[in-house]
Amino acid sequence: MGRIWSALAAALAGAIAASLVVVLVGAGGGAAPAEAAPKAENATGPSLARLLRLQKATDRRVRAAIKRSNANRKAIAAISTTPGVSGTPGSPGATGATGATGPRGKRGKRGKPGEMGPRGKRGKRGKPGATGATGPRGKRGRPGPAGETGPQGPAGLSAVETVQSGVQTIDAGASDNHSKACPAGKVAIAGGVRQTNAAGTFNVIINGSGNNISVTASARAAVNQWNATVENPTGSQQHWRVSVICAIVDP
To answer: Which CATH number applies to 157-249: 1.10.1760, 1.20.58, 2.60.40, 2.60.120?
Structure first.
């Protein structure tokens, strides 16, 4: 860079010096190489017109030198602004000491939930917990479908009928006992006492006591027979019957 500026300064100085030499030579009476002999009216030195022409020529040379100097300066400026080739990076320096821990920053915003991970392995079965309190009763469910028809069971009672003894008479203040047997092939399964009239049209079942007769005993006397004992606490004669329910019972 210094050499370029020195060359430009030398060129400019040379141009100015050459112009001054031309002027000085003309002023001292010496002959100019390209000029004709001086006119007769001014034999002692150059005329004023010649000096003016020389001055103009010198000005042109100076301006041309300045113009070349400006062009050179722009070229130099362009060269100086062009980036040079990068040098080889230097070796990294040693790591500095760890600085002091800074203050804790503010808590950031909560991030979006992440995707569900894969299902983990099944854990070991835990111990049974304590029995909880009984909950409220739930609503009644819908009826289930009808089940299949079961096998036919053994035959039970059949040919059930009620038979009665004839009308029995009991005197006032007395007691009476009577039995009634079932038809052949049937057994007594239940029985009792009925109060009636002499004609047998009035017929009322008595359990314990009722109307005018009290039942003191009523039970099966045999497999096919029912027995009853009654009392008449009234002051008049009363009428009654033994009633027994008979049926065929399959073994």
So the answer is: 2.60.40
**92-148 pLDDT per residue, tens:** 888 888 888 889 888 888 888 888 889 888 888 888 888 888 889 888 888 888 888
- Give the whole-angstrom CA distance, residue 162 versus residue 182: 9
| Distance separating alpha carbons of residues 21 and 155, to the nearest angstrom | 166
Biggest alpha carbon distance in the chain? 214
Segment (H or E) for 62: helix 48-81
Question: What are the extents of the domains in the chain?
Answer: 2-30+45-80, 157-249
Strands 213-222 and 225-231: antiparallel
Secondary structure E strands in the chain: 157-164, 168-170, 175-181, 187-196, 203-206, 209-210, 213-222, 225-231, 238-249
Residue, of 206 and 145, whose pLDDT is higher = 145
How is 96-151 classified by DSSP, letter by letter? PPPPPPPPPPPPPPPPPPPPP-PPPPPPPPPPPPPPPPPPPPPPPPPPPPPPPPPP
pTM score: 0.39
Backbone dihedral region of 200: left (phi > 0), alpha (psi from -120 to 50 degrees) or beta? left
Sign of CA dihedral 18, 24, 27, 32: negative
What was the pLDDT predicted at 192?
92
Separation between Cα atoms, residue 164 and residue 191, nearest integer Å: 9
Element (H, E) at 4: helix 2-27
